[in-house]
Specification:
This protein is mainly beta. It folds into two domains: about 60 residues, no CATH class; about 160 residues, Jelly Rolls (Sandwich), CATH 2.60.120. It is built from two helices and twelve strands; from the N terminus they run ααββββββββββββ.
């Protein structure tokens, strides 16, 4: 019989101790099992399978893929991550973790490309501190997205920012949304939510972080699988 897998489960005839080689057919038994095994292999897929119906392909299309991981040394004034945006992914997540070594850290991000310094960055953020203060930031037509701003004068701080970029490598506007957290003077903190749009249709392949102040930390870039 021809295998029914994966549409349905096969129902094989098992020989007994008294069965002859012809009933059930010995050669047919081997052929049936071979067909079923081949269908199972096709369903699972080889490593790196390009078959969109295989399990290997579908599993590979899920979750986040690490594209770039960088350790940034102290005293850095700007830091670029190049060739990280491609048409393979529609959306990217960028995670920055750092320590402010100069008590006046401002971190901004601009895309790499022809229009990287055009006044086309529109963004806004709102923050709340552990002490109850509210902070807002916004710009209509800046030359960069603002990612981290201390807004406080205190001891050395620790910052974490993670944000998503939609369609930086596509011929359409790039959208940014994320959040950031700043810890200072022990357990005090400021939390922000932020969002914005780069109002150009340029295709970008990377980004640059520019700093007011000095810092050390990590910059990781992930791609969201499109599956």
């Amino acid at each position: 019989m021809t295998t029914n897998f994966p549409s349905s489960i096969d129902n094989f005839t098992n020989p007994t101790s008294s069965s002859t080689m012809a009933s059930p057919s010995h050669s047919a038994q081997h052929a049936d099992v071979n067909d079923a095994v081949e269908a199972l292999q096709a369903k699972v897929g080889v490593d790196g399978s390009a078959d969109t119906e295989s399990l290997d392909y579908k599993v590979a299309q899920q979750g986040l893929v690490l594209i770039a991981a960088h350790q940034v040394s102290s005293g850095t004034a700007s830091f670029s991550v190049n060739d990280c945006f491609t048409s393979k992914f529609h959306c990217y997540r960028i995670i920055v973790g750092c320590r402010d070594l100069s008590n006046n850290l401002i971190m901004r991000m601009r895309a790499s490309g022809t229009d990287e310094l055009s006044a086309s960055y529109y963004y806004a953020s709102i923050g709340r501190s552990s002490g109850g203060s509210t902070y807002t930031r916004d710009s209509n037509g800046n030359t960069q997205f603002e990612i981290i701003d201390r807004n406080i004068a205190a001891s050395v701080a620790r910052h974490v920012a993670n944000f998503d970029l939609w369609f930086p490598a596509a011929i359409e506007q790039t959208t940014m949304m994320g959040n950031r957290q700043t810890y200072y003077s022990g357990t005090n903190y400021v939390s922000y939510e932020m969002g914005g749009t780069l109002n150009t249709t340029t295709q970008y392949d990377g980004f640059t972080l520019t700093l007011g102040g000095t810092f050390s930390g990590t910059v990781n870039v992930y791609g969201y699988n499109n599956g």
